[in-house]
Design brief:
- It is a single chain.
- The longest helix is centred in the middle third of the chain and has 15 residues, at 66-80.
- The protein is rod-shaped.
- The protein has helices at residues 26-35, 66-80, 128-134, 139-145, and strands at residues 37-38, 41-43, 51-53, 90-91, 98-99, 103-106, 123-126.
- The strands form three sheets. A three-stranded antiparallel beta sheet has the order 1-2-3.
- A hairpin with a 2-residue loop joins strand 1 (37-38) and strand 2.
- With 147 residues, it is an alpha+beta fold.
């Protein structure tokens, strides 16, 4: 049977045959499978020919800015001056519970008072629960709502 070729049909850019495009070309898929890759996927014979995404080399991004570094350094310095009790616990400033892993909390929020980010009189010890509940409230606003 002879296929009629019309003016609208173009040959496959991969194998130069009519009736399909390079996107659906079977020979292209076979050649890529022999090479070990297909459409950006690595084909592994140990997994029954299943496709796995290829690993891309990425370098880590440095997302810490100058202000954050200054704030972290100030809180670390302040935390060294606040010793734990004889059993290794700190007392939360808000709920007065003992905590093994204290969080250095800004009494006045960093978002509201950016000038107090590194001032040591603005730091206090809090437990993770109180730190999460406080969010960006000021010390006075949070203490009014404390249980």
């Amino acid at each position: 049977m002879i296929e009629r070729i019309t003016d609208k049909q173009k040959p496959c850019t991969y194998c130069a045959q009519y009736g399909h495009t390079a996107f659906k070309c079977g020979r292209k898929a076979q050649d890529k499978a022999k090479a070990g890759t297909y459409k950006g996927m690595k084909i592994s014979s140990s997994f029954g020919g299943q496709r796995k995404p290829m690993k891309r080399a990425t370098k880590p991004m440095n997302k810490t800015g100058r202000v954050t570094k200054e704030t972290n350094a100030a809180t670390a310095r302040w935390k060294k001056t606040q010793p734990a009790n004889h059993e290794g616990y700190w007392t939360c400033h808000y709920c007065l519970k003992w905590t093994k892993e204290p969080v250095v909390e800004h009494m006045e929020s960093k978002t509201r008072r950016q000038d107090l980010r590194t001032v040591e009189s603005n730091f206090t010890i809090a437990c993770s629960d109180c730190n999460g509940k406080k969010l960006s409230k000021s010390h006075d606003e949070f203490c009014q709502r404390c249980p």
